[in-house]
Amino acid sequence: MIAALTGFFTGLSLIIAIGAQNAFVLRLGLKKQHVLAVVLFCAISDALLIVAGVAGLGAVIEQLPILLEIFRYAGSAYLIWFGISALRRIGTDQSLEAGGESASLLKTLGTMAALTWLNPHVYLDTVILLGSIGNQFTPEQWLFALGASAGSFVWFFSLGFGAQLLSRFVSSPRFWKILDGFIALVMFAIAGTLLFGL
């Protein structure tokens, strides 16, 4: 139980910080668009990364730093594009209402996949850091992985469906313009951190 609880709270503490993935889930939850599919995708992706880290993928990545460099530049480019898209929404009707025009499920999951799998921090935090912590609990490292994965499920379901419950209170055009401005700032800040270590 100690390994599982440590995994749960460690995983939760790493994932709660506002990032590109969380900002996108928040926006979709408030717009009530593809919430179940998106939170499941995020939680399952995290669980796979955690298991991979505990299984030793983190050690492999540390031996191939070029992989993180590739993810750094590809992820930064995508974050900049996503931030520009959020800024462009501010001046259009897409930013003015909770319902708005819904992107297809496939396109939404494609965006979520890029925000998740092109983010080098996910490999540093989820694969390398959680993997190395989890292996401190050998032979109970898989209980740690289970706990950390459960933390991801709790967080993403709470964020997505919690935002959906709050959506009726945030229908004003001003709110959506502010939210998209905030999302753009988050994307640009993360991209800047990746590129320049700001």
Automatic annotation (TrEMBL):
Cellular component terms per the entry's GO annotation: plasma membrane
Tell me the InterPro entries matching this sequence.
Answer: LeuE-type
> In what way does this protein cross or attach to the membrane?
Multi-pass membrane protein
Cellular localisation: Cell membrane
Keyword Lyase carried by entry: no
Q: Does the keyword Cell membrane apply?
A: yes
Chief localisation class: membrane
Q: Which UniProt keywords apply?
A: Cell membrane, Membrane, Transmembrane, Transmembrane helix
Q: Which GO terms describe its molecular function?
A: amino acid transmembrane transporter activity
Spans through the membrane = 35-58, 70-87, 142-166, 178-197
Record Pfam families: LysE
Q: What's the protein here called?
A: Amino acid transporter
- Organism taxonomic ancestry: Bacteria, Bacillati, Actinomycetota, Actinomycetes, Micrococcales
